[in-house]
Specification:
237 residues, alpha/beta, six-stranded mixed β-sheet, three-stranded antiparallel β-sheet, binds adenosine-5'-diphosphate, binds magnesium ion, membrane, ATP-binding, cell membrane, Amino acid ABC transporter ATP-binding protein
């Protein structure tokens, strides 16, 4: 992202945001509620239109008005905080929907791939269950499977553990850790500071729509340069 600006009516929510994400790395967005983390992720996925600046994906400027936005979104997987799964569909139906409808993958192939992914994320037995039969942690893991089912180039995760009971957080973070090991490129907004410190190659601290400070996890968590970053991090220690 280069000099990205985003307003909602009168309020300037992202100002001059520069962000570079290298392939196969994990970027953690941290910052207070309302600092712009979700908006940044939504802009990256073209769910929100930016007012100024530009965004590239794999060298292509995706904010160019001539670009096919649906084609771009197909290359990006997104998981939100909650309510990710369609309640009236089984887990397998949920995760084969996009590959079949959007990518034209034949049902048998989509289902086979879906079952493999579920197996890999420890949800093999839940393929035919409906979401309300799953724990919150299982639902989020299934939502991650659904995002992965279209083989995205980039995965955006927006506080995916925030709505979970504490005892269910670890199993979801474990999945993210596995994905990192497999080389998935991810940008995640999170309040799990220990996790961010552990997994992120790059940490960005957002403050009122500005990337106030960025650096390695080591630098941001152990030697933050900005007073505001220090003040924010103190809340978690
Ligand atoms: P975070 O995810 O860091 O909590 P958000 O990106 O959700 O922050 O919000 C950043 C700011 O943008 C907040 O002030 C929020 O109220 C505002 N905002 C977000 N979405 C909208 C919207 N659709 N319309 C108006 N204001 C919005
Ligand atoms: Mg948010």
């Amino acid at each position: 992202m280069r000099s990205v600006r985003k307003t909602f009516g009168e309020s300037l929510v992202l100002r001059e945001v520069d962000l570079e994400v290298a392939p196969h790395t994990v970027t953690a967005l941290i910052g207070a509620s309302g600092s712009g983390k979700s908006t940044l992720l939504r802009c990256a996925n073209l769910l929100e239109e930016i007012d100024d600046g530009a965004i590239w994906l794999d060298g292509e400027e995706i904010t160019d008005p001539r670009v096919d936005q649906d084609a771009v979104r197909r290359r990006i997987g997104v998981v939100f905080q909650a309510y990710n799964l369609f309640p009236h569909m089984s887990v397998l139906e949920n995760i084969t929907l996009a590959p079949r409808r959007v990518h034209g993958v034949p049902r048998a192939e989509a289902e086979q791939r879906g079952r493999e992914l579920l197996e890999r994320l420890g949800l093999g037995a839940k393929a035919d269950a409906y979401p309300d039969r799953l724990s919150g942690g299982q639902q989020q893991r299934a939502a991650i499977v659904r995002a992965l089912a279209v083989r995205p180039r980039l995965l955006l995760l927006d506080e995916i553990t925030a709505a979970l009971d504490p005892e269910l957080v670890a199993e979801v973070l474990e999945v993210v850790r596995d994905l990192k090991e497999q080389g998935m490129t991810m940008v995640l907004a999170t309040h799990e500071m220990a996790f961010a410190r552990d997994i992120a190659d790059q940490v960005c601290f957002l403050d009122a729509g500005v990337v106030l400070e960025r650096g390695s996890a080591e630098q941001i968590f152990h030697a933050p340069r900005e007073e505001r970053t220090r003040r924010f991090l103190r809340r978690f220690t």
